[in-house]
# Entry
Amino acid sequence: MTGGLKQGLTWAPVTPPRSPRPPRICARAGCGAPVKKPTARYCSVACSSQDPERRARLRERARCGRILPLARQLPLDFDGEEQRIAALAGAREEVPQGLSRWAV
# Structure
């Protein structure tokens, strides 16, 4: 006898039998298709993108997004950028060198 058990006997945990869950139904209004995975809410990607409630939640979350103060935003220096583009465009040929014989 070891550990208080009779020889040949083993302890097995008793688990209650599980009842099968009914298949989950897609969360989009008007769609009654079953969901493929136990943790999913929608039957397909197309259904999740068409759900008006989900789109409203995403729109609200995007509207209440983090706003950066002006001091932390990137500087937009259009004048300097335009001058650099003009300098590059001035050295550019209108007709590529290989096609210059076709230019009229």
In short: The helical segments are 45-50, 52-63, 78-90. The mean pLDDT is 77. DSSP finds three helices and no strands in the chain. Residues 78-90 form the longest helix (13 residues).
